[in-house]
Amino acid sequence: TLQEWGILWKQLYVKHKVDLFHKLRHVMNELIDLRRQLIQGHLAQDQTREIKRHITVRLDWGNEHLGLDLVPRKEFEMVDPDQISVSELHKLSDSTRQRHGDGCRVPVSHHLFINLKSFTYNSISEDADVFFFLYDTREAKQISEKFMVKLNKNGGPKNPEKVDRLCALFTDLSSKDLKRDLYIVAHVIRTGRMLLNDSKKGPPHVQYRRPYGCAVLAMSDVFHTITDLKEEKDFVLKVYTCNNENEWYQIQENIIRKSNTKYSAPSTNYGLIISLQLLRGELEQIRRENQAVFNRALALTRKLGFPDVILPGDIRNDLYLTLERGEFERGGKSVQKNIEVTLYVLYADGDTLKDCISLGSGEPNTSEYRSFVLYHNNSPRWSEMVKLPIPIDRFRGSHLRLEFRHCSTKDKGEKKLFGFAFTPLMREDGTTLSDESHELYVYKCDENATFSNQGLYLSLPCCKEDFNSCPNLPANLPFQRSPKETFWVSTILCSTKLTQNVDLLALLNWKAHPDRVLDILGRLRQISGEEIVKFLRDVLDTLFCLLDDNTDKYGPLVFQSLVFIINLLRDSRFYHFRPVMDSYIQNHFAGALAYKELIRCLKWYMDRSAEVVRQDHIQEAMRALEYLFKFIVQSRILYSRATCGMEEEQFRASIQELFQSIRFVLSLDSRSSENLVFTQAALLNSFPDIFDELLQMFTVQEVAEYVRGTLGSMPSTVDIGQSMDVVKLQSIARTVESRLFFFPESRSILLPVVLHHIHLHLRQQRELLICSGILGSIFSIIKASSMESSVQEEVEMMVESLLDCTAEITGEYVSCLLSLLRQMTEIHFHHLLNNFHSKEELKEFLLKIFCVFRNLMKLTIFPRDWSVMRLLTSHIIVVTTQFLSPALHKNFSEADFDFKVWNSFFSLTVLYINQPSLQLEALGPAKRKKVLDKHGDMRVMMAYELFSMWQKLGDNKPHFIPGMMGPFLGVTLVPQTEVRNIMIPIFHDMMDWEQRKNGNFKQLMDKLDSMVSDGKGDDNHRELFISYFLCSLLEKIEQETWRETGISFVTSVTRLVERLLDYRDCMKGDEMENKKIGGSVNLMNFYKSEVNKEDMYIRYIHKLCDLHLHVIFCDGACFMADFIDMFHSSQLYLILQCWEYGISLCRELAFQYETLYDYQSLSWIRKMEAAYYDNIIEQQRIEPEFFRMGFYGRKFPFFLRNKEFVCRGYDYERLEDFQQRMLGEFPQAIAMQHPNQPDDTILQSDAQYLQIYAVTPVSDISDVPQLERVPERIKSFYRINNVSRFHYDRPFHKGPKDRENEFRSLWIERTTLILSRPLPGISRWAEVERREVMEVSPLENAIYVVENKTQELRTLISQYQHRQHHGNINPLSMCLNGVIDAAVNGGIARYQEAFFDKDYISSHPEDTERITHLKDLMQEQVHILGVGLAVHEKLVHPEMRPLHKKLVDQFHMMRTGLHHVSSPTCGLVFHISADTANTFFLIKQCFLLLKNIFTIYFVLQPSPSSSSLSSIRSNSSQIINSAPSSARGK
């Protein structure tokens, strides 16, 4: 698996799926680590199971996200489909898919690990105790024990051995606890002087425990942070101090509520630094998985009270005592007392119990406890909790004594005893202190008081309730109660051995009060479940003792009590005590006579179900049926052992009578009684649970007969109500899944009645899901049994009962049907097909089964990744088809021919062969081999079946022509040689019949088109289809009379397949739009020109238009829109700036509107036409570049292979961008770095070579005289549109290179490309039809270069004159600099040297006209540069003035260099331009002179602002502005 993942993992990176890439890498590393742990073999059994579960979950996750097949597993191991039924395979596949969502029914325990790393708040300078606990602020109570840490005055552990070992684990937190408003609270209690900053208060040798500060941490955010972490996370807790010690008892509440006036914040952010980690699972499991944590002297800190799940072996006996508050007298002192409470636990003999007081986990227990002292407070409130882990055997007779002392702060620092209080732990009735607050009496005493004889005060009342119970107290008591002083404590008992419940104790001690037994049994239901399960064994012993003592008197009440306890164990909190009950029954239960009374009571309850209105008690008894039978059977076993099997017949008779009562209850009509429905439902739910108990006393056949009779007593109709239907079927389902059903001898008895009920529901289409589940279980058992013995009779029963039923086609039902078909042998099929009473019934059956099979091959039944399930289904279908086809031929051929059945059969075979799961070519080599080894190529098996049945049709073949022609053609597109061989004779027959009937094969074309469009065929078998199948077909038809027509048809099909597959490949979602459009155009041309199928041509016209509109290609969308809708096309031209093409369309629409007198629409269309003209004049359009592309190599699609195209680039797209884009569209292509034509090696190579370079459009507008004076922005559109000729140049030197001036010998090889259609058109690409090559002389090249540069300047200057660049003059600056600077340093000057030289002119008299033309072009360029500099001066930024000045200076040098070659007229112009600043008169004369010359020109201009620089002539203002700025300044 990881090898396969590794390949796909790398592809994720290539496809930029970075998130999944990183997740998968993490999962792969986890799998490698888990596998390493398994291989080492040092794990316990449950650990191995858990690691396998983790591995399985991660494998399923990875397979799902990578699109791989689902692997069905059982107990985390892969299953062999041959060893299990199809139903079980379906169930396993479904459970594997849903495994991630499965939740555990048993609550999961959580444990919070806490580690105190440091306490950096060092201002105490005294020893301190830190107590951590969990606090619920919503209920304002502590929910856990305390974790205690002793620190020295430096903040380190007081015990040096505990360095880095100050950690605890708060255990047994439930999921509900994590959702509570929990806080970690830390109380800091210092040990030292009374007042921290006053050394006079008390001598230094006397130590007091004094409250210092508190820290809190909200756990709601913490749990979200640490839930998924596998390591500790650090947190800092600020320690706040209390402003008033009277508020200490609620300091954490004040901090949480942010009552700032009641506490002081620390001056620094430091405090307690702790780390936390949340652990899940059972404590023993966590101990194994985190041994390093437990080796750090981890302190287990338990939850107050029992956890949500009480485990039987969990033994606890903890009493939690909280010192709440006290009220004490001042005692004649001027100030209030400093009171310290000392706690002792004493036994009945007066000895102090050693180590029975725990201040918190993490520190050893002590024998006494001293509270902290609140300074000068006679009403102190401590709210300090301690745990008293007192042994069970010492609990009775023990008591608590609390001594109160005043701590003086004088020099001696004495602690004077002034009173005490006490309380016994257990009352006289045997119950412990109740979980509540207790107000204790305070008795006066002094330091001289002796407590050696505790009897002196134990005879006194400890509280008000105690005082009321003993009113006659003697007057001379040893200790006098202080009437104004009281002390409050509260207790919480968490014990699995002691109880506070009086009723429970009375039951356990029933012999002390036999007269109260009936009352005690009646109150058993009022005892809490926790108390009962703690004493489960004792309670059960008591109940059966009562039953033995007096059966007649106590029997019914004992039965009710037993039912109550059994149902109590069905609660999820006490579910873990069911094994305790089982253990009790097997090992401790001794009621040998109990079975008689239990049977009698149970039968009595059932017999009364028809009479009683309220049936709650009967329903409870029905729910307890399982354990009642456990007690009955075990009691009978004990009796048989004791009496050597006496009264066996009576026992069997009583059981028989009991089952008659059960049948009686189930046979009652419950439609009129809702209570009876619930009783029957409770009985049916519990009934399957008693089978295992009965098997201990009876044979398998006897138990099966009991069960059959009971199931048979249920109503046979499905009208008893939907809820009872469900309960009845659920009971049958559990019966099938029980151990009883696995015995063949019982299955033969039970199967008929089970199938009878299922048959009824399937007939009426009721509860199909449950029925399919029952059938699935039956098939799984039959499949397992078939490995060991024959199951032919059972399969026969299933066939007779089920195959005539139909149900909704769902995965569950279909898996049952497949299981049945898989188990059927030839004998079963023979019996089935011969048992139909008529051919109509057989026909109906065949149509149904073929329909089911066809639906099975849809992805809706089984998900795509259920590969194992799909392959097994395909195998069953092909085997079943082989068994059914002889019956089809036998009953529906010749005179009895039935088109519907045969057509259904052929449709099935075609769909089967084409189904995706069987296309082995798409699989990897390993998976393909695995499938072939297991099943073979099932397509071939079905193809032979198809061929065999086709041959048996005889003269009925025309019924399927041309209807099956398309489907059969689809089979030939399957890339499997043997399948194609099989299909050749079939196609020959079809073509023969088609030629006889219609004389052509046109319908085949349409079918081929639709199938390839639907995804049939691919690149790998294109060659196979063309070269093998069609060629073989040609050989087959060679001798036919219609040979020529057939050959022509096959040739057309060959070319069509090429184009269709190209088109289909181009239209894939991830392909670029250019390829899609190219493939569409290629296919359109074929349909139009080669096969003349206008309908198909129009179909692809529409597709191509939709494609253009989708990508908003300006040119192509407009051209295609003309085919669709003139009205919308006119709007589209407006949006896409194709205004010139839209004008003619507007005119056509205007003519139509005018003809129809639709003046409103006419007005609208004229306005649109006017808007087009405005846009042409005012809007700027970008001139795109054109690129020649050559696609060389056999790896390109057919419509591109070894061809060259010219492509119109996007706006602002340059050669480098275009080349990068094309390489992105063809990522496998190799870019050729030269423009030379490739040789045959490249043309025939199995690769892709891409040759790209820029070409220049050759427009025809230069031949149109009237366009000479048209503005540049209008001419530019026609220069780049409707162009079919492009050229590119290759410079070379003819003869020796002129070293002084290379321009003299620089020739140009100009290649002109003539396209098959003009650009732009319906595509941005156009194929090159032919090419022409000519050589351009150096002089002609110079003319061409100067002319092009002048045109570029003219266009750019025109744009800036009309403010179309919004202030950015960088392009103009660069262009001017490039021309002027090049002219100074070379450029025009080099042309002058080369071609204006006398020697050149004399030696080339034929070039005289060209030289003159070059001179004129140079002069024209100079004029344009002058205008450009004038425009540049107006727009240039002040910071760029130096550049402008440099350009002007260089321009003067350039103009001076050209002066001597100027014509006289031009010289005059230059003279005037140069001397403009000297005299205004000359300017005026010049203006008058030129006015007449340019009159026509001005008339042609739409406005002065829109004048063009298309010629060297310009108005006077332009000539003036061309002068240097210095001259104009003068």
List the helices and strands and how they pair.
Elements: H1 2-14, H2 18-40, H3 45-66, E1 73-74, E2 77-78, H4 86-97, E3 110-119, E4 127-136, E5 141-142, E6 147-151, E7 167-173, H5 175-179, E8 182-192, E9 208-218, H6 219-226, E10 233-237, E11 240-242, H7 251-256, E12 263-264, E13 272-280, H8 283-289, H9 291-294, E14 299-301, E15 317-327, E16 339-346, E17 368-370, E18 381-388, H10 392-395, E19 399-407, E20 415-424, E21 437-444, H11 455-458, H12 464-469, E22 481-495, H13 502-508, H14 517-522, H15 529-534, H16 536-549, H17 551-568, H18 578-588, H19 594-607, H20 616-623, H21 625-643, H22 648-667, H23 674-686, H24 691-694, H25 700-713, H26 722-737, H27 744-763, H28 768-786, H29 792-802, H30 811-823, H31 826-834, H32 839-856, H33 867-891, H34 899-914, H35 925-935, H36 938-951, H37 965-972, H38 977-997, H39 1002-1013, H40 1019-1036, H41 1043-1066, H42 1073-1089, H43 1094-1111, H44 1114-1124, H45 1126-1136, H46 1139-1155, H47 1159-1178, E23 1186-1192, E24 1203-1208, H48 1215-1225, E25 1230-1231, H49 1240-1243, E26 1249-1257, H50 1272-1280, E27 1283-1293, E28 1306-1319, E29 1325-1336, H51 1338-1361, ...
Parallel strand pairs: 7-14, 25-26
Antiparallel strand pairs: 1-2, 3-7, 3-13, 4-5, 4-6, 4-8, 8-9, 9-11, 10-13, 11-12, 15-18, 15-22, 16-17, 16-19, 19-20, 20-21, 21-22, 23-24, 23-26, 24-29, 26-27, 27-28, 28-29
Helix pairs in contact: 1-2, 2-3, 4-28, 4-30, 16-17, 17-20, 19-21, 19-22, 20-23, 22-25, 23-26, 25-27, 26-28, 27-28, 27-29, 28-30, 32-33, 32-34, 33-36, 34-36, 34-37, 36-38, 37-38, 37-39, 38-40, 39-41, 40-41, 41-42, 42-43, 43-44, 44-45, 45-46, 46-47, 51-52, 51-55, 52-55, 52-56, 55-56
